[in-house]
Write the structure tokens for this entry.
Amino acid sequence: MYRTSEQQMSIYDYLPPYHGELAERNRWVRLADAIDWDAFEKEYSGHFGHVGKVAVPARVAYGCLIIRAACGVSDRETVALIRESPYLQYFLGFDAFTDTVPFSSRSMERFRTRIPEDKVRAAVRLLRRFEAED
């Protein structure tokens, strides 16, 4: 027998599962810890001079491409997922959860031209290993 649920829940009644803390076993937290972000930052910044507009941090650019490839979504959907997920924002190195992101879906094309696909694939393989362990 089916029983109807109570009235629609309010956003103010919802308790997030992370209670202000992220789970250490989450695949994105584990991947964030496994990537040598400092080494990637040095490599990434070495390819581009210090001329022109300030770029999005290398961790954000690289992380966006990893998220896109791992989730199999479009650039626009990648940005939407990042906007909605504290785990993905942590993975990208954000200091705190926010509903705004410092780039648009159009930025993703620039990220792809600057970051080798093989680096993205290697990170996605590592993410898949973490998924298989759970």
Notes: Residues 117-133 form the longest helix (17 residues). The chain has one domain: 29-133. The helical segments are 27-34, 37-46, 58-71, 75-84, 86-91, 107-114, 117-133. The chain has a mean pLDDT of 86.
